[in-house]
Amino acid sequence: MTQAQPAIVFVGTAGAGKTTLTAATEAYLMDRDVDVLTVNLDPGADKLPYEPAIDIRDHITIQEVMEQYGLGPNGAQIAAADLIATEFGNIKQRIEAYGGDVTLVDTPGQLELFAFRASGPFVIQHISQNPMMVFLLDPAVASTARGYVSQSILAATAHFRLQIPTLNVIGKVDTLEPDTVDNILAWSKDADKVLDDLHQEPATMVNQLNESFIRILDDFQAIAQTVPVSSTTLQGIEDIYALATNILRGGAGDLNPE
Ligand SMILES: Nc1nc2c(ncn2[C@@H]2O[C@H](COP(=O)(O)OP(=O)(O)OP(=O)(O)O)[C@@H](O)[C@H]2O)c(=O)[nH]1
Ligand SMILES: [Mg+2]
Predict the structure, then answer these.
(1) For residue 4, what pLDDT is reported?
(2) How deeply is 90 buried, as exposed, middle or buried, from its count of CB atoms within 10 A (0-12, 13-18, 19+)?
(3) 258 CA distance to ligand 2 centroid (A)?
(4) Is the CB–ligand 1 distance for residue 44 below 6 Å?
(5) Which of 2, 35, 120, 251 could form a disulfide with 101 if both were Cys (CB 3.0 to 4.6 A apart)?
(6) What Rg, from alpha-carbon coordinates, does the chain have?
(7) What is the CATH number of domain 7-249?
(8) What number is the average pLDDT over the span 72-88?
(9) b vs e for 24-53, b when ≥16 Cβ sit within 10 Å of the residue's Cβ?
């Protein structure tokens, strides 16, 4: 049996702000009396700014994997990510026992460890009947047209791997100039604007490749609405909540059923 309660899975490249956004979203939902369950799936996490109800580190830690399998830290990260699937039956039972209105899932630091290996799609399939992904674009990378394209390709690849509704978020917007945020939002609404701005950059083979990618991304509607968010100022958390509600409940109401 899969979980009936919806799940929001935070995905993105290392350091993009997944953990902090999980904490900020949890605090926001708790303020609204939403019964929220947080799950940490990062076995390499050190300190967390939230207290996960379910923590993969109770089952797997990088240190133990290094010792048990004689691996270095990078090999252990990969092995630990694969081991998540073997522990998942137990975790699933605990999620079932908790219930709640919504489950928030913080994923391993490296995007490829979750999205591009077998455990990510497996976890997504079993964590909820009604999952969605919040994909965090890295703000520093996404501030140029070329960087925005590369982040959109990553978001699209994660979407195609995990096959669940996806909301793109540009994180840490408090660290960006307002003009830069405006540019990113304009790109996310208009592929031609991305092309125009790419053409301002020197014509190189890389740009030609980017142009082809943009056309593909646009055809597949992977250049998508992007929500500016800051876990520091809490800008945009409300928008995530509203859009997630729309996606998860098909616009039929609040995540909090009361
Ligand atoms: N200014 C600012 N800093 C942020 C924000 N969100 C996260 N950070 C900082 O960015 C760094 C990385 O944040 P995390 O939440 O740990 O990112 P992560 O994606 O979980 O990182 P890994 O799990 O290590 O890959 C931390 O130093 C956070 O304090 C934000 O909205 N604004
Ligand atoms: Mg993290």
Answers:
(1) 65
(2) exposed
(3) 31
(4) no
(5) 35
(6) 18
(7) 3.40.50.300
(8) 90
(9) bbbebbeeeebbbbbbbbbbbbeebebebb
**β-strand 131-137 against 102-106: which pairing, if any?**
unpaired
Which residue has a Cα nearest atom 22 of ligand 1?
Answer: 109
Q: What does the block give as tokens for 254? A: 């609040």
Give pLDDT tens digits for 148-182. Answer: 988 998 999 999 899 999 999 999 999 999 999 99
> Does ligand 1 come within 6 angstroms of the Cβ of 174?
yes
Residue 1 has pLDDT above 50, yes or no: no
Distance 209 CA to ligand 2 centre (A): 31
Close Cβ partners of 208 (under 8 Å, ≥ 6 residues apart): none
